Amino acid sequence: MSIAGLDAWLQTPQGKYVMAWEQATLDKMVADVFGYHALQLGLPQFDLLAQNRIPLRQLAHDTGKVDVVCDLRQLPFAAHSIDLVVMTHVLEFHDDPHGILREVERVLIPEGEVIIAGFNPISIWGLRRRLPNCPQHFPWNGRYLSLARLKDWLQLLGFEAGSSHFGCYAPPFRNERWLKRWHFLEASGQRWWSFAGGVYVLRAVKRVHSMRLIMPNWKQQATPRKALSAVTKKEAARHD
């Protein structure tokens, strides 16, 4: 799933603007997640687990200088072995996002967490893709997932959606000076139209409902014996 044009875009003012916000947001979100094994999927250009305290942190991707080279739909990890999975801009640029989510659910332990970052279609960035002169390279060639749809997918897999954050409210200018000029939208966007940020980060927890074993009631009350009663002469004569 190597994304064409990603490396070049990350060097542009747009890419630096988006990744600066995502890195700062993820640093805060992963800092309080504990466990034994954390996994980052995709975007090997950044260490998204830098602020996490889990001792074993690995990066998996389909190519490049990473810890694990693999298909993200077939992670080489045992089921229920990962405490935290972080992935940014993976689902909207892959042909099989459902397959990746199913694999993430498989490897996460019960109560394990997944943190997902993606482009928001309900934003100025999402609107840019619908304009006639929109470029066909990254990041405009992805299939953006709304936060509501992503929550639905996660719910079907047994996840419980947690906190979410939106950012990058400035229009997707290519010029750094214009991005800075519109930076004032960050504060007003968070206050007035927080759902319309260019990118979002969602946190979800894998829930596993435990079975309840119903045991038979061994302490059932014994059937009371019939008490002896006196028989009258009339009743005895009838039986005779």
Write the layout of secondary structure elements.
Blueprint: H1 6-10, H2 13-30, E1 37-41, E2 56-61, E3 68-69, E4 82-88, H3 97-107, E5 108-119, H4 124-128, H5 147-156, E6 159-167, H6 176-181, H7 185-192, E7 199-206, H8 233-239
Parallel strand pairs: 1-2, 1-4, 2-3, 4-5
Antiparallel strand pairs: 5-7, 6-7
Account of the 3D structure:
With 240 residues, the chain is an alpha/beta fold. It contains eight helices and seven strands. The N and C termini lie far apart (98 Å). The model has no long low-confidence stretch (mean pLDDT 87).
- In whole angstroms, the N-to-C terminal distance is 98 Å
Low-confidence stretches: none
Number of helices: 8
What percent of the residues sit in helical stretches (DSSP H or I)?
25-40%
> Hey, roughly how much beta strand do the residues contain?
15-25%
Q: What is the H-and-E element order?
A: HHEEEEHEHHEHHEH
Structural class: alpha/beta
List keywords for this structure.
240 residues, alpha/beta, 7-stranded mixed beta sheet, 29% helix
In brief:
This protein has 240 residues and is an alpha/beta fold. Helix content is 29%, strand content 20%. The protein has helices at 6-10, 13-30, 97-107, 124-128, 147-156, 176-181, 185-192, 233-239, and strands at 37-41, 56-61, 68-69, 82-88, 108-119, 159-167, 199-206.
